[in-house]
Design brief:
Blueprint: E1 4-7, E2 16-21, E3 24-29, E4 32-38, E5 42-52, E6 55-64, E7 69-73, E8 75-77, E9 83-85, H1 87-100, E10 109-112, H2 116-142, H3 152-164, E11 171-172
Parallel strand pairs: 5-10
Antiparallel strand pairs: 1-2, 2-3, 3-4, 5-6, 6-7, 8-9, 10-11
Helix pairs in contact: 2-3
Length: about 180
């Protein structure tokens, strides 16, 4: 029997069922196949933490040679603001995926963390906020306006974002950690 995982990425999306069957990952909605990816076409698996309402979830992005991507997460969107924890099924599915890919581990890139594009975007935004806040604070303080001190938290927040999301090489992970062996 194939291992399955249910996931809904947004409030407007339909519930998707993911399964590993016949050497491929299949994603279907209402028993209609929406995506299928052969296991031998997979080039990258990226695990990252993303926002899920007030909480976080672990999201797995599986990319094939042609650039297509299958995405599933550890929480299911149930409404505008509600998310249901699906960690046990997610972990089981992730373990089955890594186990099925075991013969090809040296051909696949296993990465943790956000994409380079997201890192650069948040880093740039943080830098703009920090530098803009610093410039505004210094301008106000130069004019002897104490209100410039109120911009210090803005500078700190921007600097924190820039440091946390500074561009760097992708972090590889050991796929054996996800096979339960």
């Amino acid at each position: 029997m194939p291992v399955t995982l249910l996931d809904r990425r947004s409030a407007t999306a339909k519930l998707r069922r993911f399964q590993i069957e016949d050497e491929r990952i299949i994603a279907d909605e209402d028993s209609v196949i929406k995506q299928a990816m052969r296991l031998d076409a997979i080039t990258t698996i990226r695990l990252s933490v993303e926002v899920a309402g007030r909480d976080q979830q672990i999201v797995c992005r599986v990319t094939a040679q042609d650039g297509s991507e299958i995405v599933f997460g550890s929480r299911i969107r149930e409404g505008a603001t509600r998310w249901r924890n699906n960690a046990v099924e997610y972990q089981t599915f992730l373990r089955a995926l890594h186990t099925a890919l075991r013969p090809r581990w040296d051909e696949i890139t296993f990465i943790e963390g956000p994409s380079a594009g997201l890192r650069w975007t948040i880093f740039g935004g943080g830098l703009v906020v920090a530098l803009g806040g610093a410039a505004a604070a210094l301008t106000l303080l130069w004019r002897d306006q104490v209100a410039g001190f109120f911009l210090i938290p803005v500078v700190i927040l921007g600097g924190w974002l820039a440091v946390m999301f500074r561009p760097r090489r992708p972090t590889p992970y050991d796929p054996a950690a996800y096979t339960g062996q």
